[in-house]
Each structure stands twice: as C-alpha cells, then as structure tokens.
Amino acid sequence: MSIVYLGLGSNIRPEENLSLGVRELRRHHEDVEVSSVYRSAAVGFEGDDFLNLVLRFRSEQTPVEICSEIDRLHDLAGRERSSDKWAARPLDIDLLLYDDLIMDERPVRVPRSDILEYSFVLGPLAELAPDLVHPVTGKTMLTHWQEFDAESQPLEFVGVIL
C-alpha cells in the first residue's frame, strides 16, 4: 500500500465542503488522518478566505486513479471547471505526495510544487507529518516549515473538527 497526502481547500461554504471531502475520502480509504484546519487569504485573486487542511491515507490505488477520484469529489461538491486557475471554489483537492514518487506527467504531478510555495499547504503538512522527507529536497517537512517565511502568508488556526 502507498501513503498518499492530499491538500484540501475551500472558500465557498468551506466547512460544509471540506466535511464532504473528508467524509467521502474516509468512506473509500482506511486510516485517514487529518491535520488541523487553517484559514488563509485567497491567493491570486480577491475573494473570501480559504479554509485548508492536509490529509493522509494508505491506498492501493494508482496515482492516476487517485486523480480520477479527486475529479469525482470536485464534481460532487459542485465545482465548475474553468480556465481561471485563481478563482473561488467549493472544493479544491490536490495530490501532494504519493510515497516518494517523483512524476510530472498529467494528471499526476508529485511532489506538488505547492508544498514549498504556500503556507496553507506546507504548514498543515508539517503538522501532520513533521518527519516526512521531501522526495526532491531531502529535507523534512518540519525543516521546510521552519525555513518558510510564514509571515508573508499568515495562517490562522480554525477550531473546525472534521
């Protein structure tokens, strides 16, 4: 079985849609572990704040199958596909890591570059798996988080339990 990490975010009915995503993933995967939920400002556009989290589970699915499952969950939450990458969305799920696989062939891009670029991904990931080693840099997620300029992208802990 492989260990999979997903990032989840929402800024349209975020508690409802994150709950939907986590609930559906728990229905299909064993041992789903979830980070705390964090609030962060929208990036790349003016909009409501996002709630974000990272989760981990074990799976026998291939990375491509997981990406198909992510698309299904986006559809279930009512996400409309558009060419605008930076827009409000009911549910945004990204495959962050799949074991230590390094792959950049659509639809699979792991490790996802967002891990090292955005506090709303790296912070929850470092909380959930501080000793996890990034497959490209060789550093732990905690080390990356300690080196990250968190003041440039503030996170606010939100007491939402999913």
Q: Could you outline the blueprint of secondary structure elements for this entry?
A:
Layout lengths: L1 E9 L3 H15 L1 E5 L2 E4 L9 E10 L3 H14 L15 E7 L4 E3 L2 E3 L3 H4 L1 H10 L12 H7 L8 E3 L4
Antiparallel strand pairs: 1-4, 1-5, 2-4, 3-4, 3-8, 6-7
Task: Give a structural overview.
This protein is an alpha+beta fold. The chain has a single domain (2-113, 154-158), classed as Alpha-Beta Plaits, CATH 3.30.70. It contains 5 helices and 8 strands; from the N terminus they run βαβββαβββαααβ. The strands form 2 sheets. Strands 1, 2, 3, 4, 5 and 8 form a 6-stranded antiparallel sheet that branches. Helix 4 (119-128) packs across helix 5. The longest helix is centred in the first third of the chain and has 15 residues, at 14-28. The model has no long low-confidence stretch (mean pLDDT 93).
The gist of it:
By secondary structure, the chain is α+β, with helices and mostly antiparallel strands. It has 5 helices and 8 strands, in the order βαβββαβββαααβ. It has a single domain (2-113, 154-158), classed as 7,8-Dihydro-6-hydroxymethylpterin-pyrophosphokinase HPPK (Alpha-Beta Plaits, 2-Layer Sandwich).
Distance between the terminal alpha carbons, to the nearest Å?
Answer: 24 Å
Helix share bin: 25-40%
Q: How do the helices and strands follow one another from N- to C-terminus?
A: EHEEEHEEEHHHE
Total number of helices:
5
Biggest pleated-sheet summary: 6 strands, antiparallel
How many strand units? 8
Structural class of the secondary elements?
alpha+beta
**Can you tell me the CATH architecture?**
2-Layer Sandwich
CATH homology-level superfamily: 7,8-Dihydro-6-hydroxymethylpterin-pyrophosphokinase HPPK
Radius of gyration: 15 Å
List low-pLDDT spans: none
Strand content: 25-35%
